[in-house]
Amino acid sequence: MADKYDVVVIGAGPAGMTAALYASRANLKLAMLDRGIYGGQMNNTAEIENYPGFKSILGPDLSEEMYQSSTQFGAEYVYGTVESVTVDSDGIKHIQTDQGELTAPAVIIATGSESRKLGVIGEEEFSGKGVSYCAVCDGAFYKDRDVAVIGGGDSAIEEGMYLANLAKSVTVIHRRDQLRAQKILQSRAFANKNMHFVWDTVATEILGTDRKITGLKLHNKKTGEDSQMDIDGVFIYVGANPMTESFTDLGITNEAGWIPTNDRMETNIPGIYAIGDVRDKTLRQITTAVGDAGIAGQEVFSYISSLNDKELVK
Ligand code: NAP
Fold this sequence. Notes:
Radius of gyration: 22 Å
Helix content: 10-25%
CATH class of the largest domain: Alpha Beta
Strand order of the largest sheet: 6-3-2-10-21
Strand content: 25-35%
Structural class: alpha/beta
Number of helices: 6
CATH topology of the largest domain: FAD/NAD(P)-binding domain
Oligomer: single chain
Largest sheet: 5 strands, parallel
Number of strands: 21
Bound molecules: NADP nicotinamide-adenine-dinucleotide phosphate
CATH superfamily of the largest domain: FAD/NAD(P)-binding domain
CATH architecture of the largest domain: 3-Layer(bba) Sandwich
Shape: elongated
């Protein structure tokens, strides 16, 4: 027997938790489904200082605050990995998970994105043995050691600065001669004596022994020069891919896998909404995720109310 809800929110990051808050506060019966602990990428973020209400807060602490807030009106946190979502002839959505089936007339997709791989030799082999995608998780292993950060976006620079507090040195390797990160982060990083920058350069191979990495092979795109760098750890921050594998059969994703919506967060299937980082948009932040979620939470209430009105008319 499937568990029946008014709304199933898939993903318990900031977007999912905020949608759960809005929709459950509107008295909808709601399950917030996640395959892991609530919080999403916030759990891998050291310090957050662009979420209003907190001058600065640790990512895991903000996750906890949001979780307490999102479940106060009866939203149920349900553990499970989504395998597929189908829509029956009555418009009911069937969410198949590895733990069983959930059904609801409305689904809010808030599955976010995951770290993109660099795709070089050694990356997979040394993953967890010197190659990491999470400074907060693994940074402590590199106390007083030399690490490299690959990428030039907000994540690379923010997490690079976190590492600079622990490691002996942090070398940011970026494929262009200008960072993509916000200017405020750039100026802090340039002022940090522990941070160094290698421009116009890509890593072509991660070198190591059987147990740990020892260095990187580098290629300068401007000069064509190849070089080698000794390093104890490498943190890769080259962007993100959407987590939409379970939704591709619904036909709601674009070529790159993101989910386009209108400004009501509606996808092209009535009753299916997408919010947060998984949505096709330009600015992926906690603030924009919670903004999307507030809209979807209200829209889903109107959608369920309209279905109930139809039932009454019948
Ligand atoms: P991002 O903004 O997409 O930046 C990815 C970086 O990796 C870029 O500098 C890019 O270089 C580089 N890159 C991509 N592919 C590469 C490759 N194959 N080899 C070498 N370098 C490569 O990703 P992100 O930093 O993970 O951020 C994701 C989103 O989260 C963004 O919207 C960001 O603003 C947001 N975010 C915000 C905060 C905050 O507000 N505090 C913190 C973290 C993340 P190019 O610049 O040359 O393209």
